[in-house]
Design goal:
By secondary structure, the protein is α/β, with parallel strands linked by helices. It contains 14 helices and 18 strands. The chain has a seven-stranded mixed β-sheet with strand order 12-13-14-11-10-15-16, with helices on both faces. The protein is globular. It binds NADP nicotinamide-adenine-dinucleotide phosphate (NAP).
Length: 458
Amino acid sequence: MAIATINPTTGMTEKEFDAHDAAEIDRRIGEAVTAHAALRQTSFAQRAEWMRAAADILEREADDTAKMLVIEMGKPIAQARAEVLKCAKNMRFYADNAEQFLADEPLSDPSRVAASQAYARYQPLGVVLAVMPWNYPLWQVIRFAAPALMAGNTGLLKHASNVPQSALYLDTIFERGGFPVGSFRALLIGSREVKAVLEDPRVKAVTLTGSEPAGRSVASIAGEQIKKSVMELGGSDPFIVMPSADLEAAATTAVKARISNNGQSCIAAKRFLVHTDVYDAFAKLFAEKMSALVVGDPLEEKTDVGPVATESGRSDLAELVDDALAKGAKVLAGGGAIDGPGFFYQPTVLSELTDDMRIILEEAFGPVASLYRVASREEAIRIANQTTFGLSSAVWTTDVAEESYFITELDAGAVFVNGMTVSYPELPFGGIKASGYGRELAAAGIREFCNLKTVWKG
Ligand code: NAP
C-alpha cells in the first residue's frame, strides 16, 4: 500500500511519501535505544514536565492538527478537534498519575524465613513498537505513547499507510516538549516490514491496534520472539434495549454510538438488540434519526457524517450490506453508497437479519446498523455473544436484576449501562476473544509495558 494522504472527501491524492529504507529504519531504532538509555535515568517529575509541555503544544495547535486529521481520514471537524484535546488530557493524566501507578508495592512474605522487606517494582522494558490504525490517528497513538514514555520506555510508531502526516506530527511532538531525541520515532514502512522490526533484538515489545488479521499476524511474530504484546482489535459491540429503557434517550444515544467517527470506531455499537415489546417504537425512532443525519464535507461544522476513510473500506462495507440484502434483509434507512466524488455511504439501518448473513458475525466499519428483535434477555445474550469479538457492550434497562444479569453474562471487555461506550484516561480499555488482550488507559495501561520485578530482602 502506498504511503500517502488520499483525501476521502474528494478521492484525490494530496501527498505521497517515500518509505524508509533499511538503513533509515536501523538508524531510527538506534535513536530509540539511545533515548531509552537516557530516559530511564530521569525522574517522574522530569518526564511529567516534558509531557505537560508536549500537551500544551498539542492544545495550541489543535485547530490546524484537526484539519490535518479531516484531510487524512475524513472525520467531522468537531470530532477531530475533540480528539486532539482528548490526547492532551490523556498526556496530563499520565503526567499527574504515573509515579503513583508505578510506585513500589509492598508485599507480605509467606516464606519460612521472613523477609525484612518484600515489594514489587515496575521498570520500563525499553523500546516498544506500536502498530496503529488510521481511525483515530492521534488518540490511538497517544493512549499508548503517553503512559509508555512516562514509564521510561521509548516508542517506535508504524502508523497506518493512509495517515503519514499524522505519523510525522507525532514523530516530533514529544521532543518538542523536551523529551530526549528519539524518544518517539515514526517509521514510514509498510505492513510487510513490521516482522523485521519486531524481530530486531533491540525492540522489546509490541502493541497493535487494528483488525483481527493484522493482530493474528503480529501476535504470532511476538509469540515466536517471546516478546510481550498487547492487542486492541476489532469489535461488533451489541447495544441492548429492554422494555424499561427510556426509548427516546436510547435511540438518540444509539445513533451517536453508531455514527461517531463516520461509523468507524472499534467500540461503536454495531448491532442493536431490542426487546420485542419496544422493538417497533425503537426501530421507528432510530431509523428516523439515522435518516435525518447531515452527510457531507467533514470540514463543515454542521456535518454529522463524513466519508468512509478509504475506497476499499467503502467497498467492504457495501459488500456486507449487499450480501444481507440479497439474503432477505430489509432496509429501514439508507442502503447504499452515495454517487459523486469521495467515499461517502448513506447512514443505513438493516432489519430482518438471518444467521446466514455475513453482517451477523463480521464487523461493519462504517455508518451501518443492524437491528435485531429479541424475545427475552436470554435471547439478547445469545445474539450479543455469538460473534467472535468481545470488545465492549451497552445495555439500556432500569431493572436492577436485569442490569446485573447483563453485566455478568456479556462476553466483553466493558459494559456501559444506560449510555454508550466511550474511552476516558481513567477507564481501563480492551477486549476479550478476537477483540484482543491486554489493557490500555488507567493504571493497567501503564503497567503493560513494565517489568514487574519482585524484590525480597532477608
Ligand atoms: P488494519 O488494516 O489492521 O491496520 C492497522 C495497522 O496494522 C496499520 O498500521 C496497518 O498498516 C498494520 N497492518 C495491517 N496488516 C498487517 C500485518 N499483516 N502485519 C503487520 N501490520 C499490519 O486496521 P485499520 O483498517 O487501520 O483499522 C480498523 C480496524 O482497527 C478495525 O477492525 C477496528 O475495529 C480496529 N480498531 C481497534 C481498536 C481497539 O482499541 N480495539 C481501536 C481502533 C480500531 P498498513 O496501513 O500499512 O496496512
